Amino acid sequence: MAARRRRRLRKRTRRQVQGWGIVAALAAGVWVAGNWATVWPVLVTVLATAVVGGAGWGLWRAHGRAVGEDRQWRAQEEAKARELSMTEVDALSWQDFEQYVAELCRRDGCTKVVVSGKSGDLGADVIGYLPDGRKLVAQCKKYAPHRSVSSQDMQKFVGTARLEHGADVALFVTTCRAFTKAALGLAVRQDIVALHRDLLGSWVKGARLETLIPLNGSGGGTRRPPA
Fold this sequence. Notes:
With 227 residues, the protein is of the alpha/beta class. The protein has helices spanning 2-34, 36-90, 94-107, 151-161, 181-189, 197-204, 209-212, and strands at 111-115, 126-129, 135-141, 148-149, 169-174, 178-179, 192-195. Strand 2 (126-129) and strand 3 (135-141) form a beta hairpin. The longest helix is centred in the N-terminal third of the chain and has 55 residues, at 36-90. It is elongated, with a radius of gyration of 35 Å. The model is unreliable at 217-227 (pLDDT under 50).
């Protein structure tokens, strides 16, 4: 009995709400009809604002998607260009690669650039001076693209670049794509510039060494008068 009474009460409440809703809608319709001269400009303004706002939102979203797709396309094309520029580098022997790095240094204004070109050089494959006078010491590793520079490789260079050769800027440049996490962490802590394949590709394509030095290991060092 109680459940039946509650159901009847809910039905009566719904009918009452619906009835009052119909009454309110009719009253609103009558009021709008009686005040149409005042109401219609407001309705038109609201409708026009909604249409313009919706169109603007759609255009903004479309512009954002277009910009994002363009950036992605440019990044992909830049990566392809770097890889294309690295094709000739990959064909070099390790001796020619050291000579090539030396030529890049000279192109960017380095002076007194010399290449060791022999084993037992204690990590100093290329030595020279940056245009601002800082001494540059570079270790060149001609590795396959899929390889990584190990922590052991980096440890050897860290131990000789400054202590043995007095480097202000110590540059580890390689043709492989990555340094291991341990090697990169060591490079950052010891202020070694870690130049992996992508950065090397940018250097080959014309980026100047002075703009690459801060990107992966600060490569600080005290400035000296030009040598």
